[in-house]
Amino acid sequence: MADSLQKTMINNHNLALPVGTTLDRFINRQQEAFPYAKGELSQLLRDIALASKIINREINRAGLIDITGALGSENIQGEAQQKLDMIANIRFIRALVNGGEVVGILSEEDDEIIQTGNVNAKYVVAMDPLDGSSNIDVNVSIGTIFSIYRRVSPIGTPAVEEDFLQGGRKQVAAGYILYGSSTIMVYTTGKGVNGFTYENSLGEYFLSHADIKMPENGKIYSVNEAYFEEFSNPIKDFIVDMRKQSGCMARYIGSLVGDFHRNLLKGGVYLYPPTRKAKEGKLRLLYECYPLAFVIEQAGGLSFDGTQSILDIIPENIHQRNITYLGSKEQMSKLKDNLDKYHALILEQMENGL
Ligand SMILES: O=P(O)(O)OC[C@H]1O[C@](O)(COP(=O)(O)O)[C@@H](O)[C@@H]1O
Ligand SMILES: [Mg+2]
Ligand SMILES: [Mg+2]
């Protein structure tokens, strides 16, 4: 026991913080590593944690206070907004406005950028306030996903689209909160990935998953097989090969955060390929794909959209969707091989006028 604790302390990116450290203390210690830091990003991470505690409470009692079910409105993606989608949206916006560190917010639930009025703030946040909406009413894990950028627009002015269209490699921090059998906040600031479990009775997040490393090889594949016939051959072949592997498991709960978190810890691959209905894939680049790609690459996994790392995609619009593959190194290189061979074949056929 002493050895493993010692090991956890050493591995913790030299922060030498034992499992059980509060999130607050961890944030302070991380900030000390940046001599010029003024604490704005630290405060922003605390504001996100605070909002997630309030949402966690709402989710836990959702069935008792009639906040389940659809609201009757649709978001810009044409999806029915659930009451909890909007409650989570309002709670996050309120926490970020009151926190004072964010000038603008991009949310899945709002068509336009939300101006917080904090025109002297340095950061903008893109967020999916409630991920896995189809699972809200049936008590299956759901989540929140966030991505933080330093603004490019001048201090003293409102946020603009360019603040959000900087590209995945410009994220200064990103992560998610999973509201599952326990509630856990997992994030990166570009120096590794750490997970904090929420202790309800104390109202605190504690370090529970220090320096998360994704297994290089995994046996889990997560994809909505209902669309199998619509997938391209390299994707079909990849899934068929995964099935043939002994010990392979299909796991798909239909909540991106839940499927992603499981695979991050156990090893595996999440696929949302193009379908007839969603030719660009279903997931939203700025507040689903980029943040999870940042986390997975920091944990030693890979992200891919069929041609490149998701972090290298040049964004065009704030609510754009993107093909999404996220997973363990070995499975992702196999998938990349399949797709590269397929693209080469298509190219050859085109060159031969076929
Ligand atoms: O039902 P499908 O097509 O498999 O899509 C499920 C995916 O859609 C999502 O629900 C989209 O996210 P939202 O719930 O935030 O809209 C993901 O969480 C999930 O992985
Ligand atoms: Mg989502
Ligand atoms: Mg959502």
Question: Care to give the gist of this entry?
Answer:
The protein has 354 residues and is α+β, with helices and mostly antiparallel strands. The chain is built from 9 helices and 15 strands.
Tell me what you see in this structure.
The protein is an alpha+beta fold. The protein has two domains: about 20-210, Fructose-1,6-Bisphosphatase, Chain A, domain 1, CATH 3.30.540.10; about 220-350, D-Maltodextrin-Binding Protein, domain 2 (3-Layer(aba) Sandwich). The protein is about 35% helix and about 20% strand. The protein contains nine helices and 15 strands. It has helices at about 1-10, 25-30, 40-60, 85-100, 160-165, 235-245, 255-265, 285-300, 330-350, and strands at about 70-75, 80, 100-105, 115, 125-130, 140-150, 175-180, 185-190, 195-200, 205-210, 220, 250, 270, 300-305, 325. It has an eight-stranded mixed β-sheet with strand order 4-3-5-6-7-8-9-10, with helices on both faces. A five-stranded mixed β-sheet has the order 12-11-13-15-14, sandwiched between helices. Strand 11 (about 220), helix 6 and strand 12 form a beta-alpha-beta unit. Helix 3 (about 40-60) runs antiparallel to helix 4 (about 85-100) and helix 6 packs antiparallel against helix 9. The longest helix is centred in the C-terminal third of the chain and has 23 residues, at about 330-350. Residues about 10-15 have low confidence and may be disordered. One magnesium ion binds near residues 128, 131 and 288.
